[in-house]
Amino acid sequence: MTWLRALKDTARSGLTLERRRLEPLVALRGAAGLAIVVGGTLALFGPVVAVSSAFGAFQAAIATYQRSWRPRPLLALASGCSLAFSTFIGYLAAGNLPLFLALLAVWTFAAGLAWALGPAVGVIAASNVAIMLVTITLPTSVAAAGGHAAVIAAGGAVQALLIVLFPVRRWGAQRDALADALAAEADYARRLRQDPTTSFDPGPLMLARSAAAVSPRQARRRPAELHGTRGVAERIRPVLASLADPAVGVPLEGPERDRCRELLAAAGTVLDSAASAVRDGTRMRIPRDAMSALKAPDTLAILDGPPRRAAIRLAALMDDVVETARGEGTDEDPHRDRPPLHRLAPGALRRVRAGLRRRSPVLRHAIRVSAVVCAGYLLGTVLPLGHGYWAPMTSVMVMRPDFSQTYARSVARFGGTLVGVGVATAVVQTATPGVRLSGALAVLCAFGMYLVMRTGYAAANVCNSAYVVFLLGMGGEDVGQTVPERVLLTLIGGLLAMLAYALYPAWETPRLRNRLADWLKADGRYAAAVIDHYARPSDRDSPDIRKALLAARDARIAWQEALARAIHEPVRTRGLTRAGAEAAEHALAQMGRSAMLMEAHLPEHGAIPVPAAAGLADALRKDSERAARAVRERRPLKWDRVRMALAQWEAEEHAVFSSGTTLLAEALEELTDALDEGVRR
To answer: Domain containing 271: what range?
Structure first.
């Protein structure tokens, strides 16, 4: 992709608004917390302290919108306290420009490394640096700086307290994650009616698994319908696929296929009803004909063999879905433990240390954002514009570890600033509001930002820009002078961020082959774990299969995220064209799917072992690792051991489920053909 095309696509992406479910009560609670803090500090300490406290409450509410499964009050407290500490330390060094630049470099570098711990931590750390650049200009002494830090922390505490006193949709994030997983299963069932080999994105299931981890205290308070539904949803997917696939299920045409479509439609209806009940916390209502179709007596008469077993299993799983979604299940799965924060420290240090590798995108981001923020602050200080902190504040807010988000957010930030500042300035110059009215308008803008924050960065930044204008007007700033300066410095900050990524990039495109190789190796291990079970059917519910499946899902999601970022990069593909990447992705998805189908029909305890399965599993592990190295080194893929083992499997007298191994062999050949073009280039 050329630079012109990349800039055009990222600009369009930054200005795009998405249709998301709005949460007005959550936005109202955040705005109410802000109003309490601003009103209280305004009455007790005056407008300058009120402005400082407003930033603390404002940032604390924003932190609660980040995707995290931690309790929302904890996020608000952590955000408020960290901003208070940053403000106090920043003020102590603000009087000495070289010392403050050194502190700013270290602080921003640490905020950049925080992305190694996840987007939620990265966003909160970046926001703290940005707001700190404003709040350090408000105090006039060390004692005053301590007071400002205290009211900032108090703002976070107020937001946390409101969340505890006025909860909105208890367990809402966990409910949404589980409901999305059930809805994805329902959509998969409907798509299988039209395309029996359609693929399934495991992302919603992985997200639901992450959301299901709770602390022991949370486990005692968790709603009953959130206990076992995810485990049931995990078992539904392979049953749906094995029922619909013509290779292992019913034929493509005939009465069996018609009955299969009826079963899939009924399963989709039940799953949709369960998703709606879980999301809203209401009683599950199922159309009577859906359960009747799943348990129709003539189903067993029409279907035979593996499809019949799959239909019986599907009906049983739908009963489990109904029971767990209603909170009536008696067998509760042990909860996944979410360790407390102090137990996460060693793992967090390991992830940060891993991010310090020379070629790490996180390290490059930390270096890039640190250099840009310091340069922007120095440039804003030198230029005769005043309010020089707007440039570095813009840079740190728009910069992300990947190209597309950085450029999209830069465009969105500038567009949102123009609109927000323009509207707020027109209101100020027309109505000339006083301190209290300016504070009320700032709270109203904050409510608008909380409400539309998840619909797009441009829309949120319109409200954010207007919020800052009204807030600074309440603190005594000359808005007429602030507007042109802020717009120009915002443009400078955005351009610095974009230029920095162009000069010191961290492109995802050159790493695509590594991501593909990781997925190939993980898929190979998953398929090998499943096949190995055929050689030892006594090992029921082997944890190795589950562990390998989760690793394969992680590798697949990592590949898809990398590919989505690479599509918008102005970088040439190195031996992997877009068509080749799509074909390889399809082949690996089919490889994982063949293993899933074999897992759906694992032999029961006491079944006759298949001796050839052990050899095939071993060959698949070794050849997958060798093929992964070949993908990285752009060499042809070889499957000699797997071919020999497959031949032995098919010749085995008691070999079973040969259709699954046939699908596996076809997927390996498809993958080899997809990557041949890159090797020839």
So the answer is: 172-204+228-334
Question: Does residue 223 belong to any structural domain of this protein?
Answer: no
User: How many helices (H) does the chain have, and how many strands (E)?
Assistant: 28, 2
> How many other CB atoms are found less than 10 A from the CB of residue 199?
15
Structure-token pair, residue 430 = 């027309």
d(CA 179, CA 276): 7
* CA 604 centroid distance within chain: 37
Sign of CA dihedral 402, 403, 408, 413: positive
Q: Show the CA angle centred on residue 149, arms to residues 148 and 153, nearest 5°.
A: 115
Let me know if residue 541 belongs to a domain: yes
E-only strand ranges, 126-180: none
| 176 membership: H or E segment, kind and range | helix 172-194
Distance of CA 593 to the CA centre of its chain: 23
Percent of the chain with pLDDT over 90: 35
Q: Residues with Cβ < 8 Å from 237, sequence gap 6 or more?
A: 185, 188, 200, 205, 596
| pTM tops 0.70 | yes
Q: Rounded to whole angstroms, how far apart are CA atoms 303 and 313? A: 13
CB 405 within 8 A of CB 494: no
Q: Are residues 154 and 183 in the same domain?
A: no
**Statement to judge: residues 484 and 612 lie in one domain:** no
**What gap in Å lies between CA 679 and CA 571, rounded to an integer?**
19
Q: What is the number of domains present in the chain?
A: 3
- In this structure, the number of other CB atoms found within 10 A of the CB of residue 285 comes to 8
Tokens, residue 123: 């966003």
* CA–CA gap between residue 406 and residue 113 (Å, rounded): 16
| 242 touches 306 (CB < 8 A) | yes
- Interaxial angle between packed helices 403-431 and 3-14, expressed in degrees from 0 to 180 and rounded to the nearest 10: 50
State the sign of the Cα–Cα–Cα–Cα dihedral 140, 143, 146, 150. negative
165 & 176 share domain: no
Q: Is 262 exposed, middle or buried (0-12, 13-18, 19+ CB in 10 A)?
A: middle
CA distance 486 to 418: 9
One domain, residues 462 and 538: no
Average pLDDT of the chain is 86
Query: What are residue 571's phi and psi, to 5 degrees?
Result: -130, 140
Structure tokens at 332: 């509760």
**Residue 78 belongs to what H/E stretch?**
helix 72-94
CA 66 to centroid of chain Cα atoms: 10
A 10 A CB-CB count for 271 gives 28
CA 224 to chain centre: 26
| Residue with token string 């890159």 | 678
Whole-angstrom distance, CA of residue 378 vs CA of residue 362? 24
Q: Tell me the per-residue pLDDT of 343-374, one tens digit each, with 9 for 90 and over.
A: 777 888 888 888 888 888 999 999 999 999 99
Per the domain annotation, does 216 fall within a domain? no
Q: How far apart are CA 556 and CA 592, in angstroms?
A: 10
* CB-based burial label for 195 (10 Å; 0-12, 13-18, 19+): exposed
Residue 565 structure tokens: 């970022």
User: How far from 630 is each of 524, 586, 626, 627, 633, CA to CA, in Å?
Assistant: 14, 19, 6, 5, 5
- Per-residue model confidence as pLDDT tens digits over 107-132: 999 999 999 988 888 988 999 999 89
Q: How many CB atoms lie within 10 A of CB 306?
A: 19
Q: Are residues 65 and 162 in the same domain?
A: yes
Q: Is the dihedral of CA 234, 239, 241, 247 positive or negative?
A: positive
Instruction: Supply the DSSP symbol for 138.
Output: S
Which of 481, 503, 525 is the last residue before a domain boundary?
503
Please give the biggest Cα pair distance in the chain.
90
In order of 187, 188, 586, the CA distances from 252 in angstroms are 20, 18, 21
Cα separation of 487 and 265, whole Å? 55
